[in-house]
């Protein structure tokens, strides 16, 4: 079950892996992991979102709205497999210049953009597949970026904290199909913050603020950030993520720890996250998915 | 079905109405409505939460943790019916000095405070009833503070906005039993903000901020604030509320309007809310509860 033979088979069958790169630390983590697995890669950084560090790799800058150019470049370079990774906030329509291919797809794109995130992403996925590409999940080409199971740092969750994790998981299992968000903060079995469009970092900043202004009056080192993939979410397109900023935000919010689904959340720089968490006295827990042993 | 004969019967049967007053505009609105209905009232403002304007009324200042003093004062003044109204944030334990009665109740209070809001409030309700008082809802003594049904201001919700309201209502019906919060913001059928410990005003401020920093990129006048009472919530203890600040916050968040459950939300100064909403071009809609005609 080593990934290398499979990866090199891909290399022969499908040419280089196309990685469409949004912002954040994940695109390069995925590129490095795919290269380590023996796969040739070409990055397609999205202008306005991806950072300049992608230029150390084979790359072609792309713009939202230029789907025709993207697909012709991918074909020219012999790419058949494509991975989406990194943050791309919903673009403002007036910032977009459309090429002809995109223009033809426009009615479909508009109908997609009216819905929630899941709808948006799965719609874009189908468009790629209809154009003859194979959409893969970042975790399929770079399984080592997936969250491992169990206690990861020096700090273990207490019994009460495990109860808070369980409350958070139950709530997220119910709210998942509503396509609201992937994370929440539970303190003493009570949901004090629920993530939606603001994202995890801003939700944690809010908890820090609610503590500072006395609206949340709990002892420090109380509460758990819980993140799970939404039910029915296409994991090729929108895996929840855990990064160093998440650990820093959880520490500033005075939480006791972080619990995310093992295998269901991608992690950039796990060693640094664990170091920060240990330093702040936070636990980091990989939750076994339901139905398997924890 | 006029409320006056019933109110004066209460006046004879139960002495003055005790109104335990937290912060905000609601305590005096309820006191005025109860007095208009012919009921004698005594205010019990909670120190640190209620404003000085209560002192124009018959009143006895009280402190959290002094349940013995509160009940003996209520008995001395001949009160049997009691209403809780206004904001009382979760107190910090170190700010509380307990009297003996409260001390005896402490194990029960601690067990109550570990749960969510519903648990907290229904627990406190039972403690009052066990002490021989009758807990009434503010809406029972002052039905005119309840949200009316239908379009209230000059602006009507569009068909798309009615769809957003329906999405919000469906999500809140599912999340209600989870005891998270009573409000959310929906834009183009997508939940962009979900209220928890921060309350409605801060949630609306967040939406304004997400618009300002480009994280929400929608045209202005898009989106609806929806508020419903949580399912199973004890309406004597925690009715969701709508105030002038809510209308101002919705306008700053660039929303199209506000929809709250008719009969399920209390409103302070409806005329002023409608004036502000008209000025900002917001609709204000009272949603008929499910199963009745809208």
UniProtKB/TrEMBL annotation, chains A, B:
What range(s) does the LpxI N-terminal domain occupy?
A: 17-144
Its Enzyme Commission number? 3.6.1.54
Chain ranges of the LpxI C-terminal domain:
148-284
Q: Could you tell me the keywords of this UniProt record?
A: Hydrolase
Q: What GO molecular functions are on record for this protein? A: hydrolase activity
| Record-linked Gene3D superfamilies | 3.40.140.80, 3.40.50.20
Q: What is this protein called?
A: UDP-2,3-diacylglucosamine diphosphatase LpxI
């Amino acid at each position: 079950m080593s990934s290398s033979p499979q990866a090199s088979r891909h290399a022969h069958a499908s040419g280089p892996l196309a990685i469409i790169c949004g912002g954040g630390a994940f695109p390069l983590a995925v590129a490095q992991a795919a290269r380590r697995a023996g796969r040739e890669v070409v990055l397609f950084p999205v202008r306005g979102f991806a950072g300049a560090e992608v230029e150390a790799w084979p790359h072609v800058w792309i713009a939202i709205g230029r789907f025709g150019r993207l697909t012709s470049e991918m074909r020219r370079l012999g790419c058949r497999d494509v991975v989406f990774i990194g943050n791309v906030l919903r673009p403002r329509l007036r910032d977009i210049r459309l090429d002809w291919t995109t223009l033809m797809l426009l009615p479909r794109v508009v109908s997609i953009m009216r819905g929630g995130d899941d709808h948006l992403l799965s719609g874009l996925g189908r468009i790629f597949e209809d154009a003859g590409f194979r959409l893969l999940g970042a975790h399929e080409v770079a399984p080592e970026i997936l969250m491992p199971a169990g206690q990861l740092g020096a700090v273990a969750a207490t019994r009460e904290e495990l109860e808070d994790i369980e409350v958070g998981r139950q709530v997220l299992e119910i709210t998942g199909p509503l396509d609201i968000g992937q994370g929440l903060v539970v303190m003493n079995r009570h949901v004090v913050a629920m993530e939606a469009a603001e994202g995890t970092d801003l939700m944690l900043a809010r908890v820090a603020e609610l503590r500072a202004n006395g609206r949340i009056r709990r002892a420090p080192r109380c509460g758990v950030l819980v993140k799970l993939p939404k039910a029915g979410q296409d994991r090729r397109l929108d895996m929840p993520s855990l990064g160093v900023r998440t650990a820093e935000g959880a520490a500033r919010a005075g939480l006791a720890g972080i619990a995310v689904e093992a295998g269901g959340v991608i992690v950039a720089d796990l060693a640094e996250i664990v170091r920060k968490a240990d330093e702040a006295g936070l636990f980091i827990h990989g939750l076994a998915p339901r139905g398997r042993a924890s």
